[in-house]
């Protein structure tokens, strides 16, 4: 069979992605049936469905999933509200320097997350600038990362706060481009008809950018499944397991072997669960947004 | 009306400056002498370049003695990101062309590539670590260059699909009628017309590779291969009290990203939303 010339074009990509994604996925499915702790076992031991049993009784893993959901539940609505507010402020007819505002606002989300983590580790430090600033306002210093004996949930709050700070600009920028992509005539017609700015926002702008908001939300959820760098830098999942989200639990189970059930086979099971979650959301995105249209029409 | 303009503009810019305060503080700290490191002032009272000098020479502060100069990690990051950017832009644009113009693989292949953009890397890294060990490229730059495309390739492919879509079909159809083969039409006609798209896709691939942390943390943990991001984490664990040099290292890592982001700001939304928002 002769392969068409244009088909050859996809071969390098196909081979690379098969090696980097398909092979690992198959390997995970294989390892799910094994138990392997490098320091304990000379080689992986077949254990059948035992890892599934471990999962059912593993309160740490379910806690990590809950933490992940809690973070998503707190940060995304906050980002949406704050981000839209900023977008409205930055696109108002009378605001000057729009391009500058937009470009500088990119900084928090474009800088490597590790650097954001480094930055805020210093900010949140108990003798750091945040507490020094608050003491000027008469607020007593807080152990923002719960070190050493603070309320453990304060650290989770700080992580959420940081995520909100980092990704609100994403919503803002996306909403701004939604507002700007709408034809000017629509706004003019509405204001000629005597609609107030608020009415225009509510009845003209909102319906037009609804699609954008939905896709942004879904992409934010997907990205929340990846939060790792910041937790690594700020709390390393602590105190205890309070800020250990699901991806970090996989890291602790399979790589540092410091979770309650350190085991490579078990970590494979957790990895597959994470893959399944992200694949589901990806499929929702592609169903909702007709990628055929995006590519070919 | 004029009053409204002043008020709104002022509010917007104050909000922005407050928003960026943490970052401004870090830049300030990178110029502060040792006595001022923990101070909340945004700007140093006695600015110094010493933190930056020590980054390039290796440091002498602190109880743990010297920290290594940043140069090697900078080179590691630049090499890895540049090679990955070139490679994934080349392969990505080839794939994008085949998908956009000839529907190779149909919508299944296209959606598969898109879904890869959404995979959390931690989920597939266990096998990838073993794989690089088997191939003998664990803890090498080659290993990083081998694995980073899992993040960069879906991005460049998707970006280039968008770029090719905006070039009218008639351009390459005319070339086909003139007797070019499909491949010739691709690299003689379509590619030269998408220089901006190619450059932007490469820039995205560079940015994502530059910022990547988890993959090199697991695949290249040794001091000779780690890129800047892993170095920053290592630095903060080992020499966490050295806020001055730490901040200057952070600034060195962040500055290229900010410069690049400003240059490609027009395309960032499209790049980050996978083309769903333009």
What's the short version?
Chain A is mainly α.
What does this structure look like?
The complex is a heterodimer of chains A (297) and B (278). By secondary structure, chain A is an all-alpha fold. Chain A folds into two domains: 30 residues, no CATH class; 198 residues, Orthogonal Bundle (MetI-like fold). Helices cover 71% and strands 1% of the residues of chain A. Chain A has 15 helices and two strands. Chain A has a two-stranded antiparallel ribbon with strand order 1-2. The two termini of chain A are 31 Å apart. The relative contact order of chain A is 0.14. The mean pLDDT of chain A is 88. Chain B is an all-alpha fold and 278 residues long. Chain B folds into two domains: 47 residues, no CATH class; 202 residues, MetI-like (MetI-like fold), CATH 1.10.3720.10. Chain B has 15 helices and no strands. In chain B, helix 13 packs antiparallel against helix 14. The mean pLDDT of chain B is 88. The chains are: A mainly alpha (297), B mainly alpha (278). Chains A and B meet through helix 1, helix 2, helix 4, helix 5 and helix 6 of A and helix 1, helix 2, helix 4, helix 5 and helix 6 of B.
Question: Which features characterize this protein?
Answer:
heterodimer, A: 297 residues, mainly alpha, MetI-like fold, 2 domains, two-stranded antiparallel ribbon, 15 helices, flat, B: 278 residues, 0% strand
Mean pLDDT rating of chain A: 88
Mean pLDDT, all residues of chain B: 88
Give the biggest sheet of chain A: 2 strands, antiparallel
Q: What's the shape of chain B? A: globular
Continuous helix count of chain A: 15
Q: How are the strands of the biggest sheet of chain A laid out side by side?
A: 1-2
Radius of gyration of chain B: 23 Å
CATH class of the largest domain in chain B: Mainly Alpha
Specify the structural class of chain A: mainly alpha
- Low confidence ranges of chain B: none
CATH architecture of the largest domain in chain B: Orthogonal Bundle
Quaternary state of the chains: heterodimer
Note the gap between the termini of chain B.
31 Å
Order of helices and strands of chain A: HHEEHHHHHHHHHHHHH
What is CATH's topology name of the largest domain in chain B?
MetI-like fold
Estimated helix fraction of chain A: over 70%
Order of helices and strands of chain B: HHHHHHHHHHHHHHH
The CATH superfamily of the largest domain in chain A is identified as MetI-like
CATH architecture of the largest domain in chain A: Orthogonal Bundle
Reading off the top of the CATH hierarchy, the class of the largest domain in chain A is best stated as Mainly Alpha
CATH topology of the largest domain in chain A: MetI-like fold
């Amino acid at each position: 069979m002769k392969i068409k010339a244009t088909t050859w074009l996809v071969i390098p990509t196909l081979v690379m992605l098969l090696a980097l994604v398909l092979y690992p996925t198959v390997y995970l499915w294989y390892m799910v049936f094994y138990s392997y702790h490098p320091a304990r076992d000379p080689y992986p031991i077949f254990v059948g469905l035992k890892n599934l049993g471990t999962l059912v009784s593993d309160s740490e893993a379910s806690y990590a999933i809950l933490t992940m959901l809690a973070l998503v539940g707190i940060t995304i609505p906050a980002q949406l509200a704050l981000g839209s507010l900023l977008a409205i402020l930055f696109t108002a007819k009378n605001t000057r320097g729009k391009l500058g505002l937009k470009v500088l606002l990119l900084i928090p989300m474009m800088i490597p997350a590790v650097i954001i983590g480094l930055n805020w580790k210093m900010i949140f430090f108990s003798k750091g600038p945040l507490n020094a600033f608050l003491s000027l306002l008469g607020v007593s210093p807080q152990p923002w990362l719960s070190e050493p004996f603070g309320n453990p949930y304060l650290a989770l709050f700080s992580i959420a706060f940081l995520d909100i700070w980092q990704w609100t600009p994403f919503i803002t920028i996306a909403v701004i481009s939604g507002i700007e992509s709408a034809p000017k005539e629509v706004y003019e017609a509405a204001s000629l008809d005597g609609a107030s700015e608020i009415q225009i926002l509510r009845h003209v702008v909102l319906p037009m950018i609804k699609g954008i908001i939905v896709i942004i939300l879904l992409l934010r959820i997907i990205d929340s499944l990846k939060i790792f760098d910041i937790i690594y830098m700020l709390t390393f999942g602590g105190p205890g397991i309070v800020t250990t989200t699901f991806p970090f639990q996989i890291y602790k189970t399979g790589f540092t072997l410091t979770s309650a059930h350190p085991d490579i086979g078990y970590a494979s099971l957790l990895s597959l669960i994470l893959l399944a979650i992200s694949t589901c959301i990806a499929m929702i995105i592609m169903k909702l947004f007709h990628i055929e249209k995006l590519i070919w029409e | 009306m004029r009053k409204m303009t002043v008020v709104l503009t002022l509010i917007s810019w104050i909000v922005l400056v407050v928003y960026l305060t943490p970052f401004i503080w870090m830049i300030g700290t990178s110029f502060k002498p040792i006595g001022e490191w923990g101070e909340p002032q945004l700007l140093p009272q006695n600015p110094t370049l010493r933190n930056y000098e020590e980054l390039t020479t290796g440091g002498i502060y602190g109880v743990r003695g010297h920290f290594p100069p940043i140069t090697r990690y900078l080179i590691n990051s630049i090499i890895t990101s540049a090679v990955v950017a070139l490679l994934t832009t080349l392969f990505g644009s080839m794939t994008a062309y085949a998908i956009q113009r000839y529907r190779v693989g149909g919508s299944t292949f296209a959606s598969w590539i898109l879904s890869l953009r959404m995979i959390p890397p931690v989920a597939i890294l266990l096998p990838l670590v073993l794989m690089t060990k088997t191939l003998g490229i664990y803890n090498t730059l080659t290993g990083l260059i081998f694995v980073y495309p899992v993040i960069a390739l879906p991005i460049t492919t998707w970006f280039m699909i968008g770029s090719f879509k905006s070039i009218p079909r008639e351009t390459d159809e005319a070339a086909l009628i003139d007797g070019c083969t499909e491949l010739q039409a691709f690299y003689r006609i379509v590619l030269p017309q998408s220089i901006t798209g190619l450059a932007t896709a490469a820039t995205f691939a560079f940015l994502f590779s530059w910022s990547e942390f988890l993959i090199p943390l697991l695949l290249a943990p040794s001091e000779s291969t780690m890129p800047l991001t892993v170095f920053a984490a290592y630095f903060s664990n080992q020499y966490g009290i050295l806020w001055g040099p730490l901040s200057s290292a952070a600034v060195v890592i962040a500055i290229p990203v900010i410069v690049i982001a400003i240059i490609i700001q027009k395309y960032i939304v499209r790049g980050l939303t996978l083309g769903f928002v333009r």
